[in-house]
Amino acid sequence: QDEEKWDFVLVSDFHEVGSEKETKRRKFLDELSKKGFTIKKIEEEKLFHGVRAPKQIFRKYHWLLRNPDAADSGTNGHHDVPVTTRIRVVHFILHHAMTPDFEKLRDLMKQKVFEAAFPLHENEEVTEFLKEKWARWRDIFCQQPIEKIRCYFGEKVALYFAWLGWYTYLLGFAAVVGLIVFVAGITIFSSSQVSKEICEATNTIMCPLCDQKCPFWLLSDTCTYAKVTHMIDNEGTVLFAMFMAIWATVFLELWKRQRATVVTNWDLYRWDEEEEELAMELINDMQHKPQQYQHSYFRSTIILLLVLVMIAVLIGIAHGLVIFRVVATAFFTQTDYEFLREQANTMAVMTGAVLHYITIVIMTKINRRVALYLCDLEKPRTLSQRENNFTVKIFTFQFFTNFSSLIYIAFFLGRINGHPGNYVRIAGKWRLEECHPSGCITDLFIQMAIIMLLKQTISNVVEYLSPWVTHKLRKKRQRPKKRSMMSGEEEDEEEEDPCKRHWVNNYRLSKVEFLSLFDEFLEMVIQYSFTTIFVAAFPLAPLLAFCNNLLEIRLDAIKMMRLRRRIVPWKANDIGIWLQVLEAIGILAVIGNGLVIAITSDFIPMQVYKYTYSPCVTENSTAVDCSTGYINHSLSVFRIQDFEPHTKVPEMLPGQEITEYRDYRNADDYSHTAQFWHIFAARLAFLILFEHVALCVKLIAAWYVPNVPKSVKNEFRVRKHNNLRKKLRWVMPRGHL
């Protein structure tokens, strides 16, 4: 039975004997035979070649690396070599073996000499365990068998699932706090003094929201929106933003401890990736010379410039979304449907959010191609270096793709559009959009909610259905063949070749892309960004992320176990450069939330009013709410006669000469008032204070929670002591010990 275990399967089309492709295939297989590989050929719908590496290759591997695999790393009884090690070493040799024509497997696959090369899903005890106890929707709340995952998929995949499980577990706490903050906002839905003033402002006439068909409107018309805004924009949100900044740090520090414990149990804490790579190079070719590190300032400059050009394109797309919303607002305000006219701003934001999601889907594919092209220009030395370079580039592109529009809505919307009588216009025609009359944070909330919901529903459905439908269709095509197997001749052939059906079934599974695990990480890290950076505007983000992750873990498990070919089990002792990316997001989260509270929210203007201009200060009255009069204080007066010439002034009430708008401007020349500059100074002061306090708390949390548990340090200390003691025994006479 052991002799029927095959490390890899190569698949190719049937080529004519003597053709160029057939000759190249034969040369490559001959090269493997020279290295001692056993090769088995099976002809079915394609030409299959099973390859099995000789024992001496793994003896060399164990000798060079002093058997780095832990004793409990899961063997299949095949020469006591863990199956993950076999696959990894054979994959390396297959992709580095060179034909006499100086062609490698990658070149041959580009030329369609070989169609696919993959390890097999084996019918073993661990396989059945993972299928029954892990890759099922019913186990959604069960703990993951990380050790079994490691035995089957290797350390890199196991660390991904360990990280994702840990992230989801701690996300549960953030989700509960976010839900409490949101529910607390609902309970004070109608009790806010600011909301009451807006609802009672039945005599406050506001400026039209567009140039042509928009009427004057009453501030009290936005009563419901004002209540919703206060549900999001309150003192609890500020505390929650601070909590999430601390949570992000504690999560990463606790993950470092968790990772240290896990990789110590695997005997990989001090594992050296470069040493393993050099060992496998020597196993493949004893004459191999180590590839030198290289750096070209010219090439780096070119790549940096190309990255900046790509970022400029992505920012340009964000500008395009702004123009779309401006034009959409103008369209909705001029439509014949009353509902669309009244809700023009909200409809423009919602359609803009859907369009933003579509651009994210399209640009993700383009960003990937550009990042891969830039990586090829860099000529990275190793696979891990290539992956790290790719990670930094694709995350940078994806960050701008996902967040450029949100950054505009959070920090620029309604602040660069001018004022009545002097609006900033696109092409001298369309007014730049304004914030919703009840506050800018409502627009950010709507945008965040739509994008997160679409990403976590449509994207996940497509991610699962695509390989599932492909798998089902392939199985359907396979059924007639199974029936024909009942005839005697084919049944005998099946008995003679037990590998045939197994290989064909594995071939019919979905292809595993080179960066398939990378895609799962990127998806989660972008979600982590949404969950932390603008959480002050969307307290439900952690809850949505938590629910999504419960499904994501099982979705990824089902894809890997049932729908895709087996992934190459790479060895790793951490999650790589993703940790630095997560730490960078933690810092961006502090800056982002500080800016949302200082600039987007009405929190600072309200506090300035309470402690400087409110009745509590001016009249020394404690019997009234200190925010009484805030709305009147935040309105400015505009003379109707000062409207721009091409603005169609709506019907006015008898004797109406003025209207109002939300801003801090003088009535005579529309310049900013002293209150505007007080609030501006308070915003800056709060931003500096919030960021310094949050960063200090992050540093204290990072210091307070050690990266490596004491048990791990003590274990290494004991090991060192025992090793030194053993060495000393060989030197000292027996009587002196």
Can you put this structure into words, describing what you see?
This protein has 737 residues and is mainly α. It has 4 domains: 8-68 and 80-120, no CATH class; 146-288 and 297-476 and 517-604, no CATH class; 605-704, no CATH class; 710-736. The protein is 63% helix and 6% strand. The chain is built from 26 helices and 12 strands. The chain has helices at residues 20-34, 55-65, 83-96, 105-110, 125-133, 146-153, 155-187, 193-200, 223-232, 235-265, 273-284, 297-333, 338-342, 344-378, 383-411, 440-484, 488-496, 498-507, 516-533, 541-563, 578-600, 603-613, 615-618, 630-633, 674-704, 710-731, and strands spanning 8-12, 38-43, 47-52, 116-118, 205-206, 217-218, 418-419, 422-423, 425-426, 430-431, 635-639, 658-662. The strands form 5 sheets. Strands 2-3-1-4 form a 4-stranded antiparallel sheet, sandwiched between helices. Strands 5-6 form a two-stranded antiparallel ribbon. It has a two-stranded antiparallel ribbon with strand order 7-8. Strand 7 and strand 8 (422-423) form a beta hairpin. The longest helix is centred in the middle third of the chain and has 45 residues, at 440-484. The radius of gyration is 32 Å and the shape is elongated. The relative contact order is 0.12.
